[in-house]
Amino acid sequence: GAVVSQHPSWVICKSGTSVKIECRSLDFQATTMFWYRQFPKQSLMLMATSNEGSKATYEQGVEKDKFLINHASLTLSTLTVTSAHPEDSSFYICSARDPFSSGQFTDTQYFGPGTRLTVL
Amino acid sequence: GENVEQHPSTLSVQEGDSAVIKCTYSDSASNYFPWYKQELGKRPQLIIDIRSNVGEKKDQRIAVTLNKTAKHFSLHITETQPEDSAVYFCAPLNNAGNMLTFGGGTRLMVKP
Asked: What was the pLDDT predicted at A105?
């Protein structure tokens, strides 16, 4: 149980274009999802918290107009990188929490496989 | 916000030896303490976690110990195997923000 998927797994785009990344909870309903980015050999940095049916909460320094987050259903959150530039190239990972988990702590976050974005 | 530090940043051990990674945090209200393992290019995977009402938890070769007074918790891996080679992250829960704050990571290398 508690499987999170992401699509696409990798994407290459031209500078100035927009890219949408999907994060899905496959076997549970996630009221809250989280978006992280990870540069090579570095830790995960939280970008924003995505709440179903409401606006996302962005971390300090993350441009909300550049990284658009939509959490329209209990199983899907999307991250759109608008007007992508080479410095946006990174590994983007989402995670979700199962609020009704019976076997694990409800604080446990389950991670998607990540999306490697390369902007040329 | 929560300040999280991990030590060491790299750790090389011989197969069969034990490995210990320590994580210190600043938020005394933190009450959930997970450890994640990440292999190159893959997702972080939860390997063990603990709540603040427990001092130690064990799962086969892996254990986590918690010292809430001193605000640190440690990952212990016994009888290490080459497949344990990965980057390990601690990520205490910032209870006020209800989010995880990741440490800088520890690269563990187990030499056969």
From this structure: 62
- If DSSP codes are grouped into helix, strand and coil, which group holds residue B72? strand
Of A46, A93, A107, the CB nearest to B43: A93
Mean pLDDT of B49-76: 94
The C-alpha atoms of residue B17 and residue B87 are separated, in whole angstroms, by 17
- Chain A contact for B32 (CB, 8 A cutoff): yes
* Cβ-contact A35, A79 below 8 angstroms: yes
Q: How far is CA B103 from CA A44, A71, A112, in A?
A: 8, 27, 19
pLDDT of residue A46: 94
Distances, alpha carbon A32 to alpha carbons A21, A56, A80, B8, B101, in Å: 16, 10, 17, 32, 16
**The pLDDT of residue B53:** 80
For A107, which of B36, B89, B93 is closest by C-beta distance? B93
User: Residue B11: which H helix or E strand, with range?
Assistant: strand B10-14
Distance (Å, rounded) from C-alpha A66 to C-alpha A84? 8
Q: Which of B2, B3, B46 to mutate to test the interface with A (most CBs of A within 10 A)?
A: B46
- Cis, bond preceding A99 (omega within 30 deg of 0): no
Closest residue in B to A3 (Cα–Cα): B45
In residues, how long is chain A?
120
